[in-house]
Amino acid sequence: MQDSLQKFMFEHAGVRGELVEISNTWQQILSRQNYPQAVKTILGELTAASALLSANLKFDGTMIMQIHGDGPLKLLVVECNDKLHIRATAKLAPDAVISDDATLADLIHAHGQGRFVITLDPNDKLPGQQAYQGIVPIDGDSIAVIIENYMMRSEQLDTKLWLAADDTVARGMLLQKLPKHGGIESTVEDEAEAWNRAVVLGSTLKQDELLTTDIETLLHRLFWEETIRVFEPQHPEFHCNCTREKVGDMLRMLGETEINTAVEELGKLDIHCDFCGKHYGFDKVDCAQLFVANTLVEATSIVSQSKH
After folding, report:
1. 3-state secondary structure at position 53
2. Residue 87: which of 241, 243, 244, 211 has the closest Cα?
3. In a designed cystine with 87, which of 6, 183, 204, 275 is the match (CB 3.0 to 4.6 A)?
4. DSSP 250-304
5. Maximum C-alpha span of the chain
6. Own/partner pairs, 279-285, CB within 8 angstroms, 24+ separation
7. What pTM was computed for the model?
8. Over its length of 308 residues, how does the chain's per-residue pLDDT go in tens digits?
9. Euclidean distance between CA atoms 263 and 257, whole angstroms
10. Going by C-beta distance under 8 Å and a sequence separation of 6 or more, which residues neighbour residue 236?
11. DSSP designation for 4
12. Which of 176, 173, 177 is nearest to 186 (CA)?
C-alpha cells in the first residue's frame, strides 16, 4: 500500500482541504532512530503537517520545517519537496530523560526559548537568491496550533490542522480558507459562514478516529452533507538526498585548518547522515582533496581533452 495524500475542495465554499496517511515513509524514518514515545508523536505530527503544507506550494524546491527546542528535545527537522519526498530526524540532549506523557512544552519550550522555522529552498536559485525563511517563537501547545498561528501571522491564511501519530502511522487533515472562490458571488459573511461550517464539521474528528480510519471513509463521515470535489491522490515517500559530494561541501565550509586539525586528532572523519543513517568516511587524502577539488577537476579535464 502506498502512502497517500488526498486533496479536496468544497464546491460551494472557498475552502480547500487535504487528508494524508503516511505509514511506509513513517516506518522508514523510525527505523533509523530509537526515539522515545513522546518524541515519535510530535515528529510524526510534524511529518504529516509537512506533507499537507508542501502539497499546496506551487514551487520547485523543498520546504524545511524545524523546531529548535530549549528542553530535552533540541531539534526536530522535516523536509518535504514538491514531489512529496520526505525525510525527518530529531536530536535529543545527551542527558535527556523523556517520559511517555511529556508535553510539547516540556520537550521544546521548557524555558520559553523554543523557535519554529519554515524555510522554502528553491532548486534553481537565481544568482544571489537566498532561500526564504520565517522564524517565530513557539506559539501554541501542539504542533497543529503552532503551525496554524504561523500561517495566520506570516501568510494571513485561516488554516486548521488535525494531526496524530503513533508507532505505525502519521496522519493529518488540513482545511484552509481561500480568499475568493472562482466565479461565485459571495459576501464576507457568506465566506465566513462557509469557513466556520467546515471547521465545525472538521472538529468532530477525534484523534483515535484520525489514526485508525482510511481517507475515503473519513471524507464521507465528516463531509457527507457537503458537495466535495476530490482530486487525484498523491503519494508521499521517503527519500534522502544526501551524497558524498554534499558532505564534502559541508566539510569544506568548516575550513581547511579546522578539518586538518580534526583529522590529525581522529585519524579520519566519520560522518553519518541523521536522516538515512548512511556513512561517509574521509581520511587524510580525502580531506586534502576537498580543498584542491577545483584543481583536480581542471587537471582531469585537460588530460581527458588531450586524449582526443
Report:
1. helix
2. 241
3. 275
4. HHHHH-HHHHHHHHHHHSSEEEE-TTT--EEEE-HHHHHHHTSHHHHHHHHHHHH
5. 75
6. 280/244, 280/247, 282/247, 282/248, 282/251
7. 0.87
8. 689 999 999 988 889 999 999 999 999 999 988 999 999 999 999 999 999 999 988 888 999 999 999 999 999 999 999 999 999 999 999 989 999 999 999 999 988 999 999 999 988 877 777 788 899 999 999 999 999 999 998 888 899 999 999 999 999 999 999 876 444 555 566 788 889 999 999 999 999 999 999 999 999 999 999 999 999 999 999 999 999 999 998 888 888 899 889 988 888 899 999 999 899 999 989 988 888 854 444 333 334 444 44
9. 10
10. 3, 4, 5, 20, 22, 25, 51, 80, 84, 85, 86
11. E
12. 177
Helices (H), 127-243: 143-150, 188-202, 207-212, 215-223
Please list the residues that pair with 172 across neighbouring strands: 20, 163
The set of cell numbers assigned to 92 is: 535529543
CA distances from 189 to 13, 186, 196 (A): 12, 8, 10
| Residue position matching grid coordinates 459571495 | 186
269 φ, ψ to 5°? -105, 130
Q: Which helix (H) or strand (E) holds 161?
A: strand 159-165
